[in-house]
Each structure stands twice: as structure tokens, then as C-alpha cells.
Amino acid sequence: MQPKVVEFLMHKFGRPRGPADVWVDISHVNVFMQQWTAERFGINESKADKMLSSRWNQPLRARHVPAAALAADAPHVDSVVPVRRSTTLAYRYLHRAMSHFYHRIDNKAVSAFFTFINDHAGLGTLRRDCGTRTKVEVVFAPDEAADLLLNDAFITDLGYCGGVTRALHVVFSELGVLHLFSGGGGAPGSAEVIACLTAHFALVSMKIRACLKKRAASDSDDEDAVDSTPGLNGGHRAEWVEEMGNIRHLLSSQGGRTCNGLRLTDGEQQRRDDPSYREPLAPASAAGNTPPAPTVPPPINDVMHATGAVVHGSVGGHGNEEETRDDDAAGQMEQEAVAAAHAAAAQAIAGTYEDVE
Questions:
Q1: CA triplet 74, 77, 82: central angle to 5 degrees?
Q2: What are the residue ranges spanned by the domains of the chain?
Q3: What is the pLDDT of residues 315-351, one digit of tens each?
């Protein structure tokens, strides 16, 4: 089910109807899992919730065997590292997919921003990534990180703000939705523009801010210091909500205009920083054609008059002015003919009555 949860989050993130879809509340994720489980096993959602609240047996994972145990005999290894099946609550296990999804976003965002600042502003130094010999990463000194945070310079300063836009570009590309958030500028030959929600921007800037704060608070300039900033998870949602308010204030003058390769598509909407807002779906009648009005059958006691109207009038009563004039003339002749027919019928009936008498 974890791939289904990721697919659900990806769809919401890539085609959001508001901030509530960019970082989905965990309660909505639970509802999705209940509905999927109920459909998968043919049960109601109440039973699905009970099933997801129980403990599940998890797939076995090979345990780490200490070097001392490896040097001993095989029977001794089994006794040192027993293999047992672990159990955990299904909800808790499936929520890991949500944490991994957002953690994947913050890793790419921070790396792209730091690389951009190093390339364009010359800040930071390169060091080998921990555990590798080929990958390198950018590390800022505490004073450099503090300067980027001062007055939100990493967002508002002309020399740094392109780093957040670059981070958004990398995140959308990593998730395979870049075509939904990018396009050419207004003028021919202009640079590519990232068009996204305020919530998207705040999600990326929040993690960048957290890493800069962590580095600025460091007491050491040691380039080999390990960044222990935790990845995004459900506990960081409150920080994201706060960051949306900051972005609303910092970029209020930009509105919905394109500036420095960025356009906030909801820059002029009042609820752009409301984490619970999701634009309602448009009514079906507004999106499609208006259905035709139902045909009303003619009254039974007026068959003669209705028959004439169907033959000589426009279908459904929607004719033009010329047809209306013609219909008026024809209608007058029909009325005279009907009156004559009625008179003849009355005369015939009267004659019949005279014969009977």
C-alpha cells in the first residue's frame, strides 16, 4: 500500500487545488488508506480502519552481524543475532511513505540551493559527502549562513533569491512534474519561469531556512561537521504553516506577477497561506454544456391545435422573427379552418338530433 500512498501524495502535490494539497494533512492520508483498503478487501471503511489499527507482521530485514560474530562459527552467529519477525501498527508503518516522500523533497531542495549560491555568489566551500568518495556538497560557514538569514536575504536579495527558484525547479524535475509548473517568459527568448503556489515555495524555503539556522548556530567552522538537521516529516507541518505566512508578507508586492523567474499563481488570493484551504470543484453544469430542456407533451384536449403548431411552428418554440410572422399568418388561417370544421360538426350533430326526433 505504500506505493499507493506515494501515488496519492504525488497527485495532490502535482495538481493541487490549494495549500491543503501541497502538504496533505495526515488525517486525509488515513481516509485515503481506509478507502483503498475497503475497496481492496471488499469491506466497509469501519472494518478497514480496524484492520489498519492492528499490528502487522513486517518483512524480514537482514540484521547487521558484528565483525566478532563473523569471525566465530556459524552456530554462534545465529545465537548472537537471532532472527525474529517484527510487528508494528499498520498506520505507523504506512505513514513512513509520507515521511519519505517529503524527505525526498527537502534533500533535493537544500542541495540545489546551496549549489546555486556557491556557483553564483561564491559562498560556502566544497567537501566530500559523508560515506562517499565521488560526491561533494557545499558547506556554509556560520557567518555566511547568518548573513543569508539576515532580513530573509536568501529570499529577498536579488543575488540569492534565484537559489530558491532553482531549488523548486530541481524538486519538480525530481518528481516528474516540471512540465506542470514551468513555462517560457512573456517575451520571446526569455528564460524559463517557475509558476507554483505559495505553499510550494514555502515548503522549499522552510527546509532551506532550517538548514541555514542549524549552520549559523554551529560553534565550529569545521568543514567535516555532520549536518544533523532532520528530514521533513509530519512534525514539521507547523513550521511550514508559519513559513507560508512569512512568504505572504515577503512577496506581497509581487502578487501574481513574474519576477526573477518566479510567478506565484495564487499571489493575489486571500487564502494562499491557509493550510486547510482547497478550492472546491466547479459544478458539472458550469464545465459542460447546458442539458436540453425536457420536451413537454401537448395537452390531450388540444390535439388539433397542437398538431398545427408542430407542423408549421419551429421545434421547441425557438424560431426567428420571419418564422414568427409566417406562423402568425398560417395560424390565423388554421384558426378559421378549425372554426369552420367545428361549425360543420355542430351542424351535423344538430341534423342527427333532428333525425332521431
A1: 130
A2: 104-277
A3: 344 444 444 444 444 455 555 655 665 565 555 444 4
